[in-house]
Specification:
There is one protein chain. The chain is of the alpha+beta class. The chain folds into two domains: about 30 residues; about 130 residues, lipopolysaccharide transport protein A fold (Sandwich), CATH 2.60.450.10. Helix content is about 20%, strand content about 55%. The relative contact order is 0.09. The C terminus is likely disordered.
Length: about 170
Amino acid sequence: MMVKFSLKVRLNFSFMIKLYFIILYLFLFSNANTESYVKAGENLIWDSENKSYTANGDVEFKNDKFVAYADKMIAIYEEENNDEIFTVIELFDNVVIEFKEETFKGNYAIYTRNNNIIKLTGDVSIESPTRLLTGSELIADINNNKRILNSTNKESLVEVLLENNANKD
């Protein structure tokens, strides 16, 4: 009886170790190949000749830096080691970009991978946990953690300090 029990324990333990390594491998493998993706609610058109995707309706783009949402998107890619690497992303209408603790909003945005810069135009806002800034154009330098917010006139640039609920008594 003890031999059967010991054998079962060894087999179960061996099975558990194999299962653990399979799960670990799948997790690492899936993360290695998920640098970025494009999703669309209505349609997604792949143009292999021009190496681009056009997405319409509830569009979502994600890479290792940020997540972006819009009504329409055009994504240009290059092929590297049988992977599609998105190099230029254009977002149109109702653009929302989530980057760390900030949310950028605007009517149009373009992201270029080679310099990691996001440029938004049209009713632009930047919201962080403590402030809300609005203007007409935002240039976000992801690599250097810099933001340049421009306005067409003095009235179009607004800063609002948000109340921090954590400091209330």
